[in-house]
Amino acid sequence: MISYAQAANIVSFPPPQRTLMGPGPSDIHPRVIKALGQPVIGHLDPACVAMMDELKALLRYAFQTENALTFAVSGPGSVGMETCFVNLVEPGDKVVVCRNGVFGGRMIENVQRAGGTAVVVEDAWGEPVDPQKLEEALKQHPDAKLVAFVHAETSTGVQSDAAALAALARAHGCLTIADTVTSLGGTPVLLDAWGIDASYSGSQKCLSCTPGLSPVSFSDRAVARIKARKSKVQSWFMDLNLVLEYWGGATKRTYHHTAPVNSLYALHEALVMLAEEGLENAWARHRNNHLALKAGLEAMGLKFLVREEARLPQLNAVHVPEGVADAEVRTRLLTEYNLEIGAGLGPLAGKVWRFGLMGYSSRPENVMLCLAALESVLAGSGYALTAGAAAAAARDAYAAQGTVAA
Ligand SMILES: *Cc1c(COP(=O)(O)O)cnc(C)c1O
């Protein structure tokens, strides 16, 4: 027996009350937290099956698609990513991957681990994917079967032109995989209008649900490709041929794995809230709060990493000013203001801060709190600024929108 003494001073865990303004997870609305705490029911209970069917309909709305195969993978966004790649890539397949940040790099890993060959279209971190470079790669590799790109690169805050990239892929006979983890619910994601064949997202970014679920959607073309595979999907858990019998059509469900029932309630509630607000209103809210935060950050003299036309409203990356200690500022925001912001990744480590305004985090009171906290911490670290200028600029931005700041 291992005695309890070793763990005896461990008690219940009360998480600190933070305001989440990093790259995800985002703040969760009380309605979603309440849904999470409802009684668990069996995952094959008819009531659960009915809820899962509603969830599929709600996800079709969020993704703007009629794809029958639209559901939530039991796993974080990374599992959704892997589900797309292990099902759509067969050993020997050539896949064009566009990389302009962290997540494109992970796509390359996924292609290689599925036995495919990745042709990489490179763009600088902070730049959108260049459609012309993709077109050149497709001309050079007429045997490519798939194009993969990240719509909203969370590592830099840049948005790529998904419609243009998907159209090029289609013109060259390729299917497309689009990462919409950070875009879904925050900026337009129009799977059918853009002709995207497979997409995965995350529950914890602009959908503001608990982490651990990955909404995915596959077109009929993608399903046909999967059904025509010569080799078995290497992953049993992610094999869509098997998952389909669980999440799939109207026929009887077969046990595949135990879905995280309570997390599904939470996602259902988050999506009901998105539908109540309306996608267009949600996109406008993300944009309006971004404009106010931008006005405030710029009034403090901070400069954005990404040029204006390609910026994501839900992920604001700014350069850490010269002479300011990156980690110290973030630590002070967390410990003194309970405010989480994101650090830079990879080549941008120590060089940028990433302010997320995702989902329920995208609210005027968060923008105003963030600007006040950052101003006070920066002033304390000797950075020259005009007290109150950031808040005034943000309030002006809200006034111009007809919104009242908190
Ligand atoms: C967060 C994120 C992921 C990974 O999602 P996890 O839920 O952390 O696994 C993938 N792609 C992008 C663009 C992301 O922002």
Describe the structure.
The chain is of the alpha/beta class and 406 residues long. It has two domains: 30-275, Type I PLP-dependent aspartate aminotransferase-like (Major domain) (Aspartate Aminotransferase, domain 2), CATH 3.40.640.10; 278-401, Aspartate Aminotransferase, domain 1, CATH 3.90.1150.10. 42% of the residues lie in helices and 15% in strands. It has 14 helices and 13 strands. It has a seven-stranded mixed beta sheet, with helices on both faces. Strands 1-12-13-11 form a four-stranded mixed beta sheet. Strands 6-7 form a two-stranded antiparallel ribbon. A hairpin with an 8-residue loop joins β12 and β13 (352-356). The relative contact order is 0.15. Bound molecules: pyridoxal-5'-phosphate.
Would you tell me which CATH topology of the largest domain applies?
Answer: Aspartate Aminotransferase, domain 2
Using DSSP, what is the number of strands? 13
- Beta content: 5-15%
Bound molecules: pyridoxal-5'-phosphate
Give Rg in angstroms. Answer: 22 Å
Number of helices: 14
Q: Which SSEs are present, and which pair or pack?
A:
Elements: E1 19-21, H1 30-36, H2 46-63, E2 69-74, H3 77-88, E3 94-99, H4 102-113, E4 117-122, H5 131-140, E5 146-150, E6 152-153, E7 158-159, H6 162-171, E8 175-179, H7 191-194, E9 198-200, E10 213-218, H8 220-227, H9 240-247, H10 261-277, H11 279-299, E11 315-319, H12 326-337, E12 339-343, E13 352-356, H13 364-380, H14 389-401
Parallel strand pairs: 1-12, 3-4, 3-5, 5-8, 8-9
Antiparallel strand pairs: 2-10, 6-7, 9-10, 11-13, 12-13
Helix pairs in contact: 1-10, 2-10, 3-4, 5-6, 11-13, 11-14, 12-13, 13-14
The protein binds pyridoxal-5'-phosphate.
Pyridoxal-5'-phosphate (PLP) binds at residues 24, 76-78, 81, 103, 150, 154, 179, 181-182, 202, 211.
